[in-house]
């Protein structure tokens, strides 16, 4: 008789303790390559979520007064622990999210870079001083923490995006409540375990799990001062509006439709390799995925080679050596992508490479879609207007670079864009005329390193400050301006009824 396997349960983190939820609502965490159930994640009760916020509120009283150097040392220890556990973290991420192991390591590493940057909080949180602004008067600013902050993260980067959020919030003296994606929370929880091991005190970091009710509670709770979100446009718009109406700061990084312009003078083989990697890597499940390519002039003749290069990519489980394109996160995601491919065909786009129903030996139940390429795509087509979030590339044509720029600027989204050229003049013209927050020049996915900030724009972003970098220090702190005058002991005071300091 075979014993019934007991599935592990994902815990909540409240007040420094990993807590078994008392909820009656659970969701399975599923390996997208095999459909194996890896664990069960709870949808936390209202009492549990309120307890997490209360824990953060109480911890803020002492954490806000913790010296900057002490906070920085915890983060230095944390980055060391992440490095030491990189392979374990990548394997866990690959199993629950589907990414290839190299891509999973990249996911962790890009988050690690933010942790390293947060450890430099001593110089990032400096105020300003103006000496003797009036007779014997100095004015200076203090950048002080807000209080309890919250983060809502998506399934596609379960390591990187949580690490965009809570290390910077905590470094600046806030406490934090994190709600990771319920689809793949296991690597996030392992990162949280390492954060506690590094020395983050009880209550400074808390984790809840759940769906819409958890999101709404974080937006509404009066003790939460700021909410950071990365995910879909629909949910992000809801979060921004609801949190803002509750008087909170909010930053929401949302959907995208990222374009690249290819000029005929670009380095052909390097450009083709970059296009294929940027579109089909992570199975297209990136908010910065390159999903539209505009071939300008004679570069239109490169299309057959682009198709052949995409055709060579290996589709398989992320854990298998040599895999280029792993599975989509869920069966629902696969069905949606396949439906959109069908829309492209029905609306008249030319399907040059059809990735539906690929044969993946040993993984018949996987959520796989192989690289797919459409040509003849127009702005009216559903595959152009929708963010597909799968390994699907839309190819468009333009006679001139300015025509291509006009296409990009007419799209409502503004997350990222790129140009491939050897012409400095063309690149400069592009960066000046393009209306997109993040620009790559011969760089297909121009996500900035953490000393800068993620700067998506237009419909891809709500809120004026981006995650990580200098901007997020402003987001997680409030400026207090102090005007001070100190008198000599023997100075005689005079009554002054004006508001001017002389």
From TrEMBL:
Protein's GO biological process? L-valine catabolic process; thymine catabolic process
Query: Which family does this protein fall into?
Result: Belongs to the aldehyde dehydrogenase family.
Spell out the Pfam families in the cross-references.
Aldedh (PF00171)
Q: Which SUPFAM superfamilies does UniProt cross-reference here?
A: ALDH-like
Domain (Aldehyde dehydrogenase): give its ranges.
Answer: 18-482
Claim: Zinc-finger is one of the keywords in the record: no
- Which EC main class describes this enzyme? oxidoreductase
A Gene Ontology molecular function term for this protein is: methylmalonate-semialdehyde dehydrogenase (acylating, NAD) activity
Species, as recorded: Geopseudomonas guangdongensis
Keyword Hydrolase present in the record's keywords: the answer is no
Name of the featured protein:
methylmalonate-semialdehyde dehydrogenase (CoA acylating)
The family database entries (CDD domains) matched by this protein are listed as: ALDH_F6_MMSDH
**Which EC number(s) does the record attach to this protein?**
1.2.1.27
Q: Which UniProt keywords apply?
A: NAD, Oxidoreductase
């Amino acid at each position: 008789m075979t014993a019934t396997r007991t599935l592990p349960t994902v815990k909540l983190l409240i007040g420094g303790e990993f807590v078994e939820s008392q909820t009656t609502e659970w969701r399975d965490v599923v390996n997208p390559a095999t459909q194996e159930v890896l664990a069960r994640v709870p949808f936390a009760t209202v009492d549990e979520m309120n307890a997490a916020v209360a824990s953060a509120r109480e911890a803020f009283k002492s954490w806000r007064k913790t010296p900057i150097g002490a906070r920085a040392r915890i983060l230095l220890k944390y980055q060391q622990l992440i490095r030491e556990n990189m392979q374990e973290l990548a394997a866990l991420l690959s199993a629950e999210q589907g990414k290839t192991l190299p891509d999973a390591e990249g996911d962790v590493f890009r988050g690690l870079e933010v942790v390293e940057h947060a450890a430099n909080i001593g110089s990032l949180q400096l105020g300003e001083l103006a000496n003797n602004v009036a007779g014997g008067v100095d004015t200076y600013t203090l950048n002080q923490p807000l209080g309890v902050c919250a983060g809502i993260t998506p399934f596609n980067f379960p390591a990187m995006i949580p690490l965009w959020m809570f290390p910077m919030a905590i470094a600046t003296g806030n406490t934090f409540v994190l709600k990771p994606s319920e689809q793949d929370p296991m690597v996030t929880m392992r990162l949280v375990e390492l954060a506690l091991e590094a020395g983050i005190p009880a209550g400074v970091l808390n984790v809840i799990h759940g769906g819409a009710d958890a999101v709404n509670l974080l937006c509404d709770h009066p003790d939460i001062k700021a909410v950071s979100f990365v995910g879909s446009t629909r949910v992000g718009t809801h979060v921004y509006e609801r949190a803002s109406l509750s008087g909170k700061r909010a930053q929401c990084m949302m959907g995208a439709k990222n374009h690249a312009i290819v000029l005929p003078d670009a380095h052909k083989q390097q450009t083709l390799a970059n296009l294929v990697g940027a579109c089909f890597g992570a199975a297209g499940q990136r908010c910065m995925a390159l999903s539209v390519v505009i071939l300008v002039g004679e570069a239109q003749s490169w299309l057959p080679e682009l198709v052949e290069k995409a055709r060579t990519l290996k589709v398989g489980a992320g854990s298998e050596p040599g895999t280029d394109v792993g599975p989509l996160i869920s069966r629902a995601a696969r069905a949606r992508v396949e439906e959109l491919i069908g829309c492209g065909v029905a609306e008249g786009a030319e399907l040059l490479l059809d990735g539906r129903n690929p044969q993946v030996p040993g993984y018949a139940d996987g959520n796989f879609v192989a690289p797919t390429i459409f040509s003849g795509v127009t702005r009216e087509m559903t595959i152009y207007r929708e963010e597909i979030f799968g390994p699907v590339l839309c190819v468009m044509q333009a006679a001139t670079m300015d025509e291509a720029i006009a296409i990009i600027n007419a799209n409502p989204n503004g997350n990222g864009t790129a140009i491939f050229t050897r012409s400095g003049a063309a690149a400069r013209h592009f960066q000046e005329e393009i209306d997109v927050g993040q620009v790559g020049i011969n760089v297909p996915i121009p996500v900035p390193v953490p000393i800068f900030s993620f700067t998506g724009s237009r419909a891809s972003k709500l809120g004026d400050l981006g995650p990580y970098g200098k901007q997020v220090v402003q987001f997680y702190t409030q400026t207090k301006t102090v005007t001070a005058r100190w008198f000599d002991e023997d100075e005689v005071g005079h009554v002054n009824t004006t508001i001017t300091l002389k």
